[in-house]
């Protein structure tokens, strides 16, 4: 049943996901790729993300390949409402992926200003460096995401 739930989640099929959950499918069950429905969810489908979280999906389960969480994925892709829902349901935004990146690093690198604005005040150390020794502000600057770099630098100088 976990494979069916994960497939429905990846396709963004909210009604099928709800049906499966109402009929006892484990929201944290692993599919044949060792991932949960939340890990493969169609990001940006905020109603589906929220439904999985409200059903008890664990937002802190790590990907078996890259050691990241769904919060890393949502931050990297700029889905601010999904990130907000994850945070509201206990996502630990201070977990790092295999390269030492916090969700804040990934959002900054990609220039997702709204996600940066959401995460920066919640991140334990917004000055933290990743595995390559770069801060979120440095990543934003390196990748020419000047709005994000300026926001982070302004935030850090005022805190």
In words, what does this structure look like?
By secondary structure, this protein is mainly α. It contains nine helices and no strands. The longest helix is centred in the last third of the chain and has 13 residues, at 146-158. The radius of gyration is 16 Å and the shape is elongated. The chain starts with a helix and ends with a helix.
Describe the secondary-structure layout.
Blueprint: H1 2-11, H2 14-22, H3 46-54, H4 70-77, H5 80-88, H6 103-110, H7 113-120, H8 136-142, H9 146-158
Helix pairs in contact: 1-2, 3-5, 4-5, 4-6, 6-7, 6-8, 7-9, 8-9
In a nutshell, what does this entry contain?
This protein has 159 residues and is mainly α. The chain contains nine helices and no strands. The protein starts with a helix and ends with a helix.
Give descriptors for this structure:
159 residues; 0% strand; mainly alpha
């Amino acid at each position: 049943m976990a494979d069916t739930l994960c497939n429905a989640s990846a396709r963004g099929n909210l009604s099928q996901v709800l049906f499966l959950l109402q009929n006892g499918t484990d929201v944290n069950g692993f599919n044949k790729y060792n991932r949960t429905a939340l890990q493969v969810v169609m990001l940006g489908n905020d109603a589906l993300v929220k439904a999985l979280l409200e059903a008890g999906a664990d937002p802190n389960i790590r990907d078996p390949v890259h050691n990241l969480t769904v919060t890393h994925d949502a931050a990297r892709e700029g889905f601010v409402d999904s990130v907000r829902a994850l945070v509201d349901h206990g996502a630990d935004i201070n977990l790092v992926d295999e390269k030492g990146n916090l969700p804040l690093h990934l959002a900054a690198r990609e220039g997702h200003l709204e996600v940066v604005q959401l995460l920066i005040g919640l991140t334990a150390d917004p000055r933290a460096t990743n595995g390559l020794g770069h801060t979120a502000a440095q990543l934003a600057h390196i990748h020419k995401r000047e709005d994000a770099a300026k926001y982070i630098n302004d935030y850090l100088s005022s805190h």
